[in-house]
Amino acid sequence: MTRRFGRRRLRLPRQEEEMNITAFMNLMVVLVPFLLITAVFSRMTILELNLPAGGPPPPAAQQSFELEVVVRKDRIEVADRNSGLLGRYPARSEGHDFENLREKLKAIKAEYPEVVNATILLEPDIAYEVVVQTMDVVRTFPAEQGGRTVQAELFPEISVGDAPP
Questions:
Q1: Could you give phi then psi for residue 107, rounded to 5 degrees?
Q2: How many Å apart are CA 10 and CA 146, to the nearest integer?
Q3: How many domains in the chain?
């Protein structure tokens, strides 16, 4: 009996253990650059659009060129808001005529190089793909520069609205 109770456990003073954060730090070293890289890529896919200005037209002395591209189911119309229709491009069997639209817009840009605004007016029920293609054609066009193809700027500031009936 003395043997059973004779042994006493020695209690050592408790030492506080340090928290091991090595695994957490390794996770942060990998996670932070990944999140920063993906945030930059997601920002590149955003296209900022403006709403068209409303109200009465300016007086004749202050009128300038204001490009409007009206997308309808059967055609695309290019117009100046102040002077009227500049071109009409009927849709073909394979879709809208974006090639001729691009050529017309390049000619307009050559005539009015300082203009950077364009308004795209859409009929209801226009397919999303057609809207995106139209915006791409209005914003840029492929051009040769130094032996390679680059995207040259046409009318990068785009406003979107409803087409008149």
A1: -65, -40
A2: 84
A3: 1
Please indicate, yes or no, if residue 26 is contained in any of the structural domains: no
> What is the residue-level pLDDT of the chain in tens, covering all 165 positions?
555 565 666 777 777 788 888 999 999 999 998 888 877 665 555 566 666 666 666 565 456 888 999 999 999 999 998 888 999 999 988 889 999 999 999 999 999 999 999 999 999 989 999 999 999 999 988 888 888 888 888 998 888 988 888
Half-sphere exposure of 82 (CA within 13 A, CB side): 10
Q: What is the CATH number of the domain that holds 150?
A: 3.30.420
pTM of the predicted model over 0.85: no
Residue 47 belongs to some domain of the structure: no
- What would the DSSP string read from start to end of 66-79? -EEEEE-SSEEEEE
- 129 within domain boundaries: yes
Classify burial at 117, counting beta carbons within 10 Å of its beta carbon; exposed 0-12, middle 13-18, buried 19 or more.
Answer: middle
Range of the domain at 80: 65-162
CB 123 within 8 A of CB 163: yes
